[in-house]
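Please, structure for the following, as tokens.
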Amino acid sequence: MKPKTVTRPDAARGEMVRDYLTMTLAILLSAVGVYFFKFPNHFSTGGVTGYAVVLVRLIPGMTVTGLSNILNIALLVIGLAAIGRDFGIKTIYCTLLLSALLFLFERFIPLAGPLTDEPLMELMVAMLLSAAAAGMLFHIGASSGGTDVVAMVLRKYANLYSIGTALMLTDFLAAAATFFVFDIKTGIFSIFGLLMRGALLQAVLNTLRQRKYFHIITEDAQAIESFIISQLGRSATVFEGRGAYTQGARSLIVTVVNAREAVLLKNHVKTHSPHSFLLITNTNDIVGRGFRNAM
């Protein structure tokens, strides 16, 4: 069977707008989790904010928000100098936005201590917000800066076996340092939070990545193709074939859509082509135009 590919309209501008809206929401969630839940409880679960929590104890007169912003901006400058024009504009936007939000929170909503007397609950909220934010950013190929900038520089200049392993080790060291800088209770919470964040992040990524993979065997290919293109804004690949039992002409339409679009497509086929045969499976690892998830 020779396939023919149906092209989808160019949606680059709309994707860019969605990306920046997603980044803005993700950074807002991250800033809320860091400022209102991590900083007051001295939770250090890695990254720049985690190291700021630990190091601020060694720098009299410095606030954890101020130190976090200094480290983020410094790493941003290093990234720009080391990588140059290949340094991502999304990383610049996210880093500056996070620093601005943390500064505004500290300026207008100063905190004297934790919001509640339930540190475990606050840790769970902090990790949930952090994982949700990180998952949203990873999903669109963005970064909140910080230690991600270190990874970019190492990837370009260092011959490391696994940059991911190195960064995980640095996160663990930041969490472990709280045992000595603060107390055993804070250290246990930080280690537990680091593990919790990893599990939550994977769950968030799996949810965001999940798509519906359709195989549609039909005699009404043209009408279904038109619906996929005009109503869903998606593409499809169509194979021409024949039924083994009836020997009649058939078309096989292959397409991938999100959960909302899957309901619309399924209902459309059931209503307008009830004799079509549908196979619908879940998939969460899609690489290609319209699905930029390559992780």
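Confidence is low (pLDDT under 50) at residues 5-9. The two ends are 31 Å apart (CA to CA).
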